[in-house]
Each structure stands twice: as C-alpha cells, then as structure tokens.
Amino acid sequence: MNPNDPSPETDNGNTVTFRRPRARDGKRIWEIARDSRVLDVNSPYAYVLWSQDFSETSIVAEFDGDVVGFATGYRRPAAPDTLMVWQVAVDETQRGKQIAKRMVCELFRHCAQAGVVAINTTISPDNQASQRLFAGAARALGLQLTREPFFSAELFIDSHEPEDLYLLTPGSAQ
Ligand SMILES: CC(C)(COP(=O)(O)OP(=O)(O)OC[C@H]1O[C@@H](n2cnc3c(N)ncnc32)[C@H](O)[C@@H]1OP(=O)(O)O)[C@@H](O)C(=O)NCCC(=O)NCCS
C-alpha cells in the first residue's frame, strides 16, 4: 500500500481509508490509545516517534477525514520476516465495522511486499476482542494460528496480565 494510494473500503456509504502514519498522527494515535482504557498508554512522544520511524510497519484508518484507528508494529529483529503487531485500537464510535481486521490485513499485505510472511502479537488471556480479531485476521489471510506462553505476569512492575504469543504463520489454516 502506497500512502498516496490508500485503499478505499465502503462503510455504510462512507469511506474508510488506510495509510501509513506520519509524525503528525502521533497525537491522535495517543488519544485513541488513551481512550481505549485497555491498552498500556505509551508517552505522546513514543507515538510521534513510532509514526515517524516505524511507519512502514504501522497503519492508520481514516473515516470522514479523521484518524479512527491504528496498529503499530515492527519487524522482529531476530526474525525480520515476521511482523510483530504491538498495539491495535479503534475509536469506540467506529468499532464493529471490521476496521481493526482490515488494518491488520492491509498492514500484513503491505509488509509482505518487503518479505514478511508471518505475524506475531501478544494478547493477555482476558482480551477476548483481541483474540477474536487475530483469529479473524488469520482466517482472512489464510494463515495458521497458534499460541504459546510468552511474558509471565511477574515480569511486569505493575499489575499486568501475562501475555501469550499468538503466531500467524504460513501453512494449512485452521
Ligand atoms: C479490539 C478492537 C481493536 C477491535 O476493533 P474493531 O474494529 O471493532 O474489530 P473488528 O470489527 O475488525 O472485528 C474483528 C473480529 O473481532 C471480533 N471482535 C471485535 N470486538 C470484539 C469484542 N469486543 N468481543 C468479541 N469479539 C470482538 C469481531 O466479531 C470480528 O470477528 P470475526 O472476524 O469473526 O467477524 C477494539 O475493540 C479496541 O480498540 N479495543 C480496545 C483496545 C484493544 O483491546 N486492543 C487490542 C489489543 S492490542
């Protein structure tokens, strides 16, 4: 996906478009993360930096000219053919319209052009929405979904749930 060539998707007659984030999107991404009340909210600086330096492995969704969703990601340093999707959130008013799933799929397809073949993400056991999101993305992309323990709760200084690693890999999709 070229940032100058966003993929239009119709949504009840309106249009959702997807593009690479830019530094100026950092503020809005921070707001969406904060308003999710689920994500660990990084500093405003972190989202500006991420939108600048990890733009090729991140995505935003726009609806009626406003950024309404984002997914941040990076290529895993020890496995550059794997896209680690870090955070995904959609503005509450826009949920249930497949925007998150479309962001993950669009992002994967964009990264696939640069050699990415798999997606990893970490999800806490209580985040059913996220589990369903990545199960749906795996189906849509024809990837196999497996899960393994990743970060145990005692690694975190705050009262954080453990995080499982979800692996979406090429192979026979379940
Ligand atoms: C999780 C979140 C990104 C989903 O956004 P969304 O645009 O509403 O999701 P989609 O419409 O693309 O739904 C994708 C799939 O997830 C399922 N899903 C979405 N929200 C769900 C929920 N609250 N409970 C159960 N399943 C849910 C959908 O039914 C759909 O399943 P399908 O593929 O079988 O049809 C959004 O609820 C959110 O921002 N939550 C707060 C932040 C968060 O938890 N992020 C994930 C961790 S990084």
List keywords for this structure.
174 residues, alpha+beta, Aminopeptidase, eight-stranded mixed β-sheet, 8 strands, globular, disordered N terminus, binds coenzyme A
Q: Can you put this structure into words, describing what you see?
A:
It is a single chain. The chain is globular, with a radius of gyration of 15 Å. The chain is α+β, with helices and mostly antiparallel strands. Mean pLDDT is 92; it is low at 1-8. The chain has helices at 26-36, 44-53, 99-112, 128-141; strands spanning 9-11, 14-19, 59-63, 66-76, 79-90, 118-123, 144-151, 163-169. The two termini are 27 Å apart. The longest helix is centred in the middle third of the chain and has 14 residues, at 99-112. The protein has one domain (9-169): Gcn5-related N-acetyltransferase (GNAT) (Aminopeptidase). Helices cover 28% and strands 33% of the residues. Strand 4 and strand 5 (79-90) form a beta hairpin. It has an eight-stranded mixed sheet. Bound molecules: coenzyme A (COA). Coenzyme A is lined by residues 36, 38-39, 87-90, 95-101, 127-130, 132-133, 136. Pfam families: Acetyltransf_1.
